[in-house]
Amino acid sequence: MTTTTPRTITVEIPACLELPADDEQVLRTTLETIITLVSGGCGGAERHLGHLHENDWQVNWGLTWIARARRGTVYEEATGASKQEVLAQLDRLTGLHEVEGTP
Amino acid sequence: MSYSATIREAHRQLLDELEEKGLYKEERYILGPQKADIEVEYPAGAAPAEVINFCANNYLGLSSHPAVIEAAHEGLRSHGYGMSSVRFICGTQDIHRTLEHKLTEFLGTEDTILFPSCMDANAGVFEAVLGPEDVMIADRLVHASIIDGMRLCSAMRDTYKHSDMKHLEQKLEEHQDKRVRLIITDGVFSMDGDLAKMDEIVALAKKYDAMVFSDESHSSGFIGKTGRGVHEHCGVMGEIDIITTTLGKGLGGASGGCVSGRKEIVELCRQKARPYLFSNTVAPVIVSGAIKVLDLISTNTERRDKLEWNTNYWREGLTRLGFDLKPGESPIVPVMLYNAKLAQDVARELYHEGIYVVGFFFPVVPQAAARIRTQLSADHDQEHLDKGLAAFAKIGEKYEILGLGKQEIIERYGK
Q1: What is the ipTM of this complex?
Q2: What is the percent of chain B where pLDDT is above 90?
Q3: Is A28 helix (H, G, I), strand (E, B) or coil?
């Protein structure tokens, strides 16, 4: 059966199951990765990739960790291959925001 | 899209929050040129008050020097008001080249390129010179413009604890896998007025194959025996790869900035630095004034020497009175009050005594480190300093803070 309507799969996690945030993230990412890989050319990703290549962009893509920190109006973001890497990077990046500083 | 009522209200709330937190900045209107004695209207509509200015970056007192003003007038007559162009299209005049040469000679580098401001110089230089394979390792208290410039650059960003050479060495070791390591520091730090340990930074740079960048905005013209900057003071002239500085502080006080350093780095800025490529050229009037400033200070250290005398006199006076000062040698002299409200109250009372200073508190400076940042000028005479000291004595006595250290002030007034 073919359809053009987007569908969602919902999985209930029982209340008795203590699922750490990291494990939940891994489950979600695993399912997203499977869908991404099997969806192949459909879903619009290939269209965007084609458009970028037409405009001479060199494109790399892949799954990555992301960490964000916010304090007041200051925002920093880090991406990397592991949770440890992104948090270490975030720790480095926020080092410049100890204070706003004087003119 | 129109400025909807919803967005207007959201912005209004943000502004109200700033006011509630005591972070709302109010302008004061100076009715005349910048000098030691000024007339100020504050708040708006109030009768003007004559005050002594202790919060300008007018370190050499050249902001309203008659010779500088005359040179600026001559520049207007000979080279016009504006160029209506960026530099590389049709915005470069002979006087731009002259000023760049004079700055190169003054700072002891290989070449210099002007920017509309040092804020622009700092915004543009890193991205022009570094790439994703490189790392920038900055002192944690560098100026906000450097932080902004670093964020615009694709190189990795890292920091070291303020002036901590051991921590810097650790970072340099950690980043030996990078193509370029760039150590980034202020020459004089604007918050505390302390000097970078430039000789130690250069030694580490040599040991770990790194380049050195220094923003000399709060030192050009008056730090070092002949006022060349912290690099002169620390005996490492010619060893800083990239210097940025402003023409908006000691060097005339108008506007403009520059990147000065290795020839190829300056050339890269000329080809690639976005604030240079996409922003209007420095106006002829500013260039002409700045040329005169450099002529005045290149062969004569009178103003620099007077500033040094004023700084020592001021520090000794405040110390004798019993104020808690951040140690240092620059003309930035922070009077530590620790409590934010105390700093604001004391600044306000000093203003009523005819002394114009500004209180700084968190998040501008660290929590529980509120201060009044006083700044000396060669335009101050001893009479100005004595009046200032008398006012500080009076207000210090009123708030019973003379002779008290950090713990005691915090106990009395809180953090």
Answers
A1: 0.78
A2: 96
A3: helix
